Amino acid sequence: MAMVPPIDDEGATPEVRAVFDDIRRTRGVERINNFWRVLANDPASLRRTWDSLKSVMAAGALDPLTKELIYLAVSIANGCQYCTASHGAAARRLGMTKEMLGELIAVVGMASQTNRLADGYRVPVDEGFENLF
Amino acid sequence: MAMVPPIDDEGATPEVRAVFDDIRRTRGVERINNFWRVLANDPASLRRTWDSLKSVMAAGALDPLTKELIYLAVSIANGCQYCTASHGAAARRLGMTKEMLGELIAVVGMASQTNRLADGYRVPVDEGFENLF
Amino acid sequence: MAMVPPIDDEGATPEVRAVFDDIRRTRGVERINNFWRVLANDPASLRRTWDSLKSVMAAGALDPLTKELIYLAVSIANGCQYCTASHGAAARRLGMTKEMLGELIAVVGMASQTNRLADGYRVPVDEGFENLF
Amino acid sequence: MAMVPPIDDEGATPEVRAVFDDIRRTRGVERINNFWRVLANDPASLRRTWDSLKSVMAAGALDPLTKELIYLAVSIANGCQYCTASHGAAARRLGMTKEMLGELIAVVGMASQTNRLADGYRVPVDEGFENLF
Amino acid sequence: MAMVPPIDDEGATPEVRAVFDDIRRTRGVERINNFWRVLANDPASLRRTWDSLKSVMAAGALDPLTKELIYLAVSIANGCQYCTASHGAAARRLGMTKEMLGELIAVVGMASQTNRLADGYRVPVDEGFENLF
Amino acid sequence: MAMVPPIDDEGATPEVRAVFDDIRRTRGVERINNFWRVLANDPASLRRTWDSLKSVMAAGALDPLTKELIYLAVSIANGCQYCTASHGAAARRLGMTKEMLGELIAVVGMASQTNRLADGYRVPVDEGFENLF
User: Fold this and answer.
1) B13 at interface of C, judged by CB pairs closer than 8 A
2) Residue C130 falls within a domain, yes or no?
3) D112 and F110: CB-CB below 8 Å?
4) Which of B93, C119, E37, E112 has the fewest CB atoms nearer than 10 Å to its CB?
5) Judging by beta carbons within 10 Å of its beta carbon (0-12, 13-18, 19+), is residue A64 exposed, middle or buried?
6) Please, which residues have CB within 8 angstroms of residue E18's CB and are 6 or more apart in sequence?
7) Is the pLDDT of residue F76 over 80?
8) Which of F58, F74, F101 is the C-terminal boundary of a domain?
9) E84 close contact with B: CB closer than 8 A
10) Which residues of F touch B109 (CB under 8 A)?
11) Quick check: D114 contacting F, CB < 8 Å?
């Protein structure tokens, strides 16, 4: 169903295998999702994407669950079905409850509605919305 | 610059004025943003949108700041300039720091990148991503 | 502000001038919008786009105003600011009232909201939604 | 296939059941679509979304079929597969013919094309496209 | 699974058949993709779309493979699954290698990421980015 | 006009300055675009984004101009105004002619149109569009 076949552990080059191992260690899971197995057809892209993702999603000013909720919300807004499914599961593992999911989707829906109202009425930006910091 | 002129307090019907008052009370601010003043040209839509927004954004399983961060992230993903500006300011009022904004935008960028990778490779959804609850 | 400068009547080649004349005749207006003047930098694209547009927007099973309302709605959903402005003006010329605009934007907002709810919950397509005709 | 399981009539709380009954009454149909059954996992969201939808889609300055056509067009532009399927079926029930569907999709395609042309050439907004009413 | 059934060769009117023949001749393939067979339900749209596509995709200042790669990239960015699949196959026929596909998807992902960064930070357009020619 | 102020050379930390210098060296230009100056408010994001961009956009199976054209096309499709302006200028520097720009925008428009036709008709994916390599 994909553009290129997924790479399983046997077919992985040492370079790819090193990324798979780092994913397993970092996330504490054994399973490697289809996303990484398909991306492994382009080892440089696999390495670059995983390194960026690990860095961006690490705890910082925002905690990991909040980051994962934002990730899921953006995936819904972008209409990416795979991403909505996989980051829904990831947020669940990090503690997202059914009530939190319900509220998250409600916010995404509300934002998308008012986004269209603002765009449709061509609302001019208010003074004071610049250089917040 | 808008499709219809903003409605100021003098031009507001009692119905519109009631919503403006509720916005001021709920948010503890005096200023009514352009969004609501433009939307006031359609009083039924103003009432419906404000009532839904107030309900969706109230504290629940997710706290108000987390909801506002999700709202901002979705507005960026949808490419809505007004909404990015206004919800950036709203999140700032609720305590978003410069570091939090930086990490939020990084997550939105990362999600948009991997969304395209998943779509581009047509990655099939993994088993086990259904009925999370 | 554009990628290429707009072409005025004096700078128009006979090929471009012929399209400008056809736009004036078909729409019964003297002014040629910036869209066509910028597109005139690529005469083949100007001709192809105008011919397709004239054919698609002509009265058929849907009347011209309904078509223009759909056009405006899609431009809002796509976040195209120029198109929202220009097709708002076009719909106005064809008889769109302020109330109709308000309801149209409300529908666009509502659809965008429920689109995200359906995407977010990953709602499976119901049986019976195929081959409607 | 969904994030949460659909709620059938037996599993519906009285609050959810009341919305289901109102949907059946308002639309004159017996079947409740998957969208509402999945949304029923979050009863407050179900009630809010249905109430807004009923209000937004009621006859007004625009008749119900025109509203449904706009809804369908936006769902296509947003790339929401479930929504395109369900609102295609809804428009069909309200009288959309095969010719109307063909013209609608042609307008959506045309608008999406010219949206990209306007965005790509960065066409500046013409004077006179403001405050239409 | 479609809104309307695909039209096979037997069910094709002479008008539709002429377009099918032109597709076969122009592309040097025997198979007519589902896209054209479904579009054939609206013969005017089939003719208009095929004529535009043939003209837009013909060799010019950009060679056919470069055009097909751009087409594929846009389809991924628009989240159109059918189009990503069919234009992936078309680019393959024109000589796209697995490495080229990997780099193309990486560019699409990178662009989508920086698009969100620019939108999220509301970066002002630099002087000197106007009227490039 | 931005969410955070641009960082000029004087205000740059050594870490930020090192990235600015690498941008100047790699591109052979003196000017640092607003994008990088705004991003410099989050030095880790600046470094990560520039490193990824430099790697993704380097010559490989696709030459730099082709990659820049794909980047520009995706920016148009995503409706990112800053990115369309800045990558239009970048492609111009790499040799894009006015005719190439015209054809590129025409392909983006055409793809967006047929994307909506495929989505609107819900065209099923043809057999043989899987695992292209």
Assistant:
1) no
2) no
3) no
4) B93
5) middle
6) none
7) yes
8) F58
9) yes
10) 49
11) yes
The residue ranges of chain A whose pLDDT is under 70 are none
Pick from D46, D44, D18, D26: nearest CA to D34: D46
B45 in C contact zone (CB under 8 Å): yes
- Burial class of residue A108 (count of CB atoms within 10 Å of its CB; 0-12, 13-18, 19+): buried
Q: Is B79 on the interface with E (CB under 8 A)?
A: yes
* Number of independent structural domains in chain B: 2
Q: Are residues A93 and A121 both part of a single domain?
A: yes
Check whether residue A83 and residue A53 sit in a common domain. no
E80 shares contact with chain D (CB less than 8 Å) = yes
From B56's Cα to the closest Cα of chain D, the distance in A is: 8
Tokens at A66, concatenated: 């909040």
Question: In the prediction, which pLDDT does D107 show?
Answer: 98
Contact between residue A126 and residue B29 where contact means Cβ atoms under 8 Å apart: no
Q: What is the dihedral of CA D14, D20, D21, D25, to 10 degrees?
A: 160
Same-domain check for residues D5 and D66: no
Tell me the shortest Cα–Cα distance from D67 to chain F, in angstroms: 17
Tokens 């004025």 — which residue? B17
How many Å apart are CA B105 and CA B87, to the nearest integer? 13
CA distance A102 to chain C (A): 9
Contact status, residue E96 vs residue E102, Cβ threshold 8 Å: no
Low-confidence residues of chain E, pLDDT below 70?
none
Q: Which stretches within chain A are classed as H helix?
A: 14-27, 34-39, 43-57, 64-77, 81-93, 98-121
CB contact under 8 A, C4 and E133: yes
Asked if E3 and D88 come within 8 Å (Cβ–Cβ), the reply is yes
Question: F131 lies in a domain?
Answer: no
Q: Note down the domain range covering E37.
A: 1-58
Are residue E47 and residue E66 in the same domain, yes or no? no
The answer to whether B98 contacts F49, with C-beta atoms less than 8 Å apart, is no
pLDDT at C128: 87
> A127 is written with which tokens?
């003074």
Do residue D113 and residue F113 have CB atoms under 8 angstroms apart? yes
Same-domain check for residues B75 and B91: yes
Instruction: Compute the half-sphere exposure of residue C124: CA atoms within 13 Å on the CB side of its CA.
Output: 11
CB pairs under 8 A between C and F: 22
- Say if residue E38 is in the same domain as residue E54: yes
Beta carbons of D121 and F104 less than 8 Å apart: no
Q: How far apart are CA F90 and CA F85, in angstroms?
A: 9
Residue C24 lies in a domain: yes
pLDDT number for residue B94:
96
Task: Spell out which residues of chain B touch residue C123, defining contact as CB-CB under 8 Å.
Answer: none
CB-based contacts of D95, cutoff 8 Å, min separation 6: D65
Between the alpha carbon of residue F33 and those of residues C19, E118, F27, the distances in Å are 38, 11, 12
Question: Tens of pLDDT along A3-27?
Answer: 999 999 999 999 999 999 999 999 9
The CA distance from E16 to the nearest CA of chain A, in Å, is 31
**Chain E residues touching residue C131 (CB < 8 angstroms):** 2-5
Question: Could you state, in chain order, the average pLDDT of each consecutive group of 10 residues for chain B (133 residues)?
Answer: 93 97 95 97 96 96 98 98 97 97 98 97 93 90
Q: Rounded to whole angstroms, how far apart are CA atoms B68 and B46? A: 20
Chains C & E: contacts with CB separation below 8 Å:
34
What ipTM was assigned to the predicted interfaces of this complex?
0.96
> How distant is the Cα of E102 from the closest Cα of chain A, in angstroms?
6
- Provide the shortest C-alpha distance from residue D14 to chain C (in Å): 22
Residue ending a domain, choose from F20, F38, F58: F58
Same domain for A68 and A10, yes or no, is no
CB-closest option in B41, B78, B130 to C79:
B78
Q: What is the CATH number of the domain that holds D106?
A: 1.20.1290.10
> Has residue F129 been placed in a domain?
no
Alpha-carbon distances of F41 from A133, B70, B77, B123, F20, rounded to whole Å: 10, 21, 21, 35, 13
